[in-house]
Amino acid sequence: MEKNSNVTALAAEMKSLTLSNFHQFTLLPFELRHKIYTLILRQPRTVSITCEKKVLVPTTRRYIESFSTTTPIPPLLHVSSESRREALKYYAPSFQTTHSPKYIYVNFSLDTIKLAEGILGYLAPVDRDVIQRLILHVNDAAYFGHFHMDHLVAMKSLKEIEMWAGHGEIYSWVRDGEYLIILTRDFHRARRDNLGWNCPRVEIKYGVKGDRVGLIEGGCWTQEEEETMR
């Protein structure tokens, strides 16, 4: 137990170190170095995604020039060749486009993707289909179902969503619940219209503290639910 706790403590320290100030790390047995790498690499992150949109001339059609993030690159990718080799077993370059060489390192098994609703429709299937956890900023909850629900239904691996209302929607949600009712109804309808869709669990939040104002448990539409509609 003591040995494992020491390794964990060393791994935590390594997250902020490089070989330039931890020369003795390379003297450790590879098995121990590998265990430290693994402990660091299994830490989940929240990866914020933004994008640069452009217009395809002479049309008015928009496209994504590139995706970007303010989330730091996993440090083990640039500590040493050995740590990079281990890190690439966990992280893959993602959110690439044909218009830019940029990419973002993500481990979709662990990381939560954070983005605005307007980006959903521009995600390439290779990224969209492997996102498991999503923090989604919604500008207009009343129209989310109409414009964006199909994009969520297409996300094959999605398990959890934190859906955040912008400041302008907070008062409407709290005052009469109109937007919350509409949003809940839209998820309910999407489950019924897409039989077999395993709807993710959705927490609806607002405010700086992220107070929860609604919860949709998700799951597939069931025969019991269908019978209650009759």
The H/E string reads: HHEEEHEEEHEHEHHEEH
- Main sheet record: 6 strands, mixed
Binned, the helix content reads: 25-40%
Number of discrete helical segments: 8
**Radius of gyration, Cα only, in angstroms?**
21 Å
Structural class: alpha/beta
Tell me the β content.
15-25%
Oligomer: single chain
Low-confidence stretches: none
What would the principal axes of the Cα set say about the shape? Answer: globular
How many E strands?
A: 10
Strand order of the largest sheet: 1-6-7-8-9-10
The overall average pLDDT, rounded, is 87
Query: What's the end-to-end separation, in Å?
Result: 58 Å
Would you write up a description of this structure?
There is one protein chain. By secondary structure, the protein is α/β, with parallel strands linked by helices. The protein has helices at about 1-15, 30-40, 80-85, 125-130, 140-155, 165-175, 180-195, 225-230, and strands at about 45-50, 50-55, 60-70, 90-95, 105, 110-115, 135-140, 160-165, 200-205, 210-215. A six-stranded mixed sheet has the order 1-6-7-8-9-10. Strands 2-3 form a two-stranded antiparallel sheet. Helix content is about 35%, strand content about 25%. Strand 7 (about 135-140), helix 5 and strand 8 form a beta-alpha-beta unit.
